Amino acid sequence: CRLQEFGSKEPVIRQGAPGDSMFIIADGLARVAVRRDDAKSAEVTVAELKTGDVFGEMSLLTGEPRSATVYASTQLRVLLVPKDALAPLLAASPNAAERMAEVVTQRRSQSVAATTTEVTPIGAAAAVRDSSNVLKMIRRFFRL
């Protein structure tokens, strides 16, 4: 892991870019923004993050492209956690992968809700199914 610093309004990660790391905010504030389906649409802010919050976990855990752009809202210091640092932790603790799958599923549904005009409530059964699918992706990506 290593510490990185960003100036106010500077992007930390960009939507659509590949990613094999996640970030833990050591100090400062960040803004999470998502574009709707077409690249020409305006970004929508879906979350504000503070010290101790985590972002970038979806790409790190599943191998998918970044699903949002994260900007520093203030001077921002983050701890970058690469895939190779997380792999031994996931292998040693299967419950950690399950909990992370739940977090990824929750964040995905928040992102979809903020960027879609359709009302598509997700039921409890669908949420469990989505979490199960994400867990399978994590296990496959990390060869667990």
Describe this structure in words.
With 144 residues, this protein is of the alpha+beta class. Helix content is 39%, strand content 28%. It is built from four helices and eight strands; from the N terminus they run E-E-E-E-E-E-H-E-E-H-H-H. A four-stranded antiparallel β-sheet has the order 1-8-3-6. Helix 2 crosses helix 3 and helix 3 packs across helix 4. The radius of gyration is 15 Å and the shape is globular.
Present the secondary structure layout:
Elements: E1 2-6, E2 11-13, E3 21-27, E4 30-35, E5 43-49, E6 54-55, H1 57-62, E7 69-72, E8 76-82, H2 83-92, H3 94-115, H4 124-141
Antiparallel strand pairs: 1-8, 2-7, 3-6, 3-8, 4-5, 4-7
Helix pairs in contact: 2-3, 3-4
In short:
With 144 residues, this protein is α+β, with helices and mostly antiparallel strands. It has 4 helices and 8 strands. A 4-stranded antiparallel sheet has the order 1-8-3-6. Strands 2-7-4-5 form a 4-stranded antiparallel sheet, with helices on one face.
